[in-house]
Amino acid sequence: LAIMPQVDSVTRTTAPYYGFGQWIIKDVYSNKNHTVNGKGVNDQYFQMFDQSLIEGEYFSKADIQDENQVAIVNESFARTIAQNGSVLGMTFELGEGFIFKIIGVVEDTNIPGRDEVANSVFAPSRKGRNSFTIKIKPNQQLSRTQIVSLLKTVDPKFLVHTFENVEETHDQWLATQIATIYTTTSLAVLSLFLAAIGLYGILNYHSRMRRFEFGTRLALGAKRVSIVSLVFRDNFRPLLFGISGSVVFILVIYLTNSENLSQYVSFQLVSYFIVTVLLVTGILLAACYLPVRRYINQPAICSLRGAE
């Protein structure tokens, strides 16, 4: 597989979304049991999937070939078993007599469709493992037929049981979330559109009622910008009141339910708030300017005659 021209690298394990089993391991020193997601990998696994090393070292080729009793854990499990120190060198027992030592800590990976990151332990893959993950070179493709043809040249007894594209599987697992995003975005855009139309209708009617005032101000020498600014100032107070009321309402809800809402609060919400305020302000500016535009772009006498 590795010498095929379109192949970049091959690791003798499954992709990050597969192959985990539930292991019950026991801390040798404290005799405390932990339930974790366990998986056998080889020395190229973490590099292939860009899972960065936080502490310690990756598996070596010797660890895989000799099936050394070592393990690498993710940072979530490392925080669980050693909140204020290093986990390197800690030993755990898996089953009877299989004791492994932690030699490294890697960053967490998010599994599609799961809200939380599971505590994970990685051990050297067994030599008899028949699952492979193939990384393809850029702008290259690899089909099941090509794999089958290659296997026949090695041994006709070899068969391809499952052949899946990791990216396609990733998208399938996120299908519900993707559909939710598109639906929510569509509803948000539709809501803004309807709100903008309603706001425009109200301000258009309001401007028609004030066309005599606009004509009088223009006749007395007022500039177009001052007319638009006047309309915007008159409607800015409700906007300011709405924003302030929303902030106060959100703060009250958060302070009374901080335990349940703390996981949803982050500094990223500040950027969302700023974007929302700018968007609403832009809609208000457009709704203020468009109805007034025809009155400030025509001679003042037209507005005065229309008022009569």
Care to describe what's here?
- With 308 residues, the protein is of the alpha+beta class.
- The protein is built from eleven helices and nine strands.
- The strands form two sheets. A six-stranded mixed β-barrel has the order 2-3-8-5-7-6.
- Strand 2 and strand 3 form a beta hairpin.
- The longest helix has 35 residues, at 175-209.
- The termini are far apart.
SS content category: alpha+beta
Span between termini = 87 Å
H/I helix tally: 11
Main β-sheet: number of strands, strand sense, barrel status?
6 strands, mixed, barrel
Mean pLDDT metric: 85
Strand-and-helix sequence, N→C? EEEHEHEHEEEEHHHHHHHH
User: Percent range for helical residues?
Assistant: 40-55%
Strand tally, please?
Answer: 9
The proportion of residues in beta strands is 15-25%
Shape: elongated
**Rg value:** 32 Å
In terms of per-residue confidence, which ranges show pLDDT below 50 for 5 or more consecutive residues?
none
User: Within the largest sheet, what's the order of strands?
Assistant: 2-3-8-5-7-6
Short account of what is shown:
This protein has 308 residues and is an alpha+beta fold.
Keywords:
single chain; 308 residues; alpha+beta; six-stranded mixed beta barrel; 50% helix
